[in-house]
Design a protein that fits this description.
Layout (H helix, E strand, L loop, with lengths): L1 H22 L7 E3 L30 E7 L7 E10 L2 E11 L5 E6 L7 E6 L4 E8 L10 E6 L4 E7 L1 E2 L1
Length: 167
């Protein structure tokens, strides 16, 4: 009987932290609200996007756009829009009105498919709610990598995707 109790305590001591780590983020939301990129050639802006003369910034044009769709399993979900915006330094992937189920190890990918077999890693998801920007590496072929993925690296799980189409 004592061995059973000791074994149960050991299993609980190991399993409980693992469950909290994996499931905990599902109940915690993080929010960000980054400013939209400024149009290429608008060099007279300060760090807040305000023109030196006090005029408001001119937003860049949208090159590609798509809407997020969750995977439909009742757990992993993503909503909002993804836009590719050309800026002076290259291109930015912008998420607007974005909302995703949170997870333990979420990343932004530009991928050739929804299985993340061939992708460009844009970095960790900054927040699971809000407007956010990600630099697209120079030379990325958006005709090949035309699917935006919210991807959990640790468990290789798709949370949502957006197909980018020319605007």
């Amino acid at each position: 009987m004592k061995k059973t109790i000791i074994a149960a305590i050991i299993v609980a001591a190991v399993a409980l932290p693992a469950v909290v780590y994996a499931a905990g983020p599902l109940f915690i939301n993080t929010t960000i609200n980054e400013a939209a990129p400024v149009a290429a050639g608008n060099e007279m802006m300060d760090k807040d996007g305000i023109n030196v003369a006090g005029e408001s910034k001119t937003l860049a044009s949208i090159k590609f756009a798509g809407s997020f769709i969750g995977v439909g399993d009742g757990i992993h979900d993503a909503q909002g829009s993804a836009k590719v915006i050309p800026v002076r330094e290259g291109s930015i992937l912008r998420l607007e009105d974005f909302r995703s189920t949170n997870g333990p190890d979420l990343y932004m990918y530009l991928s050739s498919d929804k299985d993340a077999t061939d992708f460009v890693n844009l970095g960790k998801l900054k927040a699971n709610i809000g407007n956010q920007n990600y630099e697209i590496p120079e030379g990325t072929d958006l005709s090949k990598y035309g699917t935006v993925l919210i991807w959990c690296q640790q468990f290789s799980v798709l949370f949502g995707s957006a197909e980018l189409v020319s605007s």
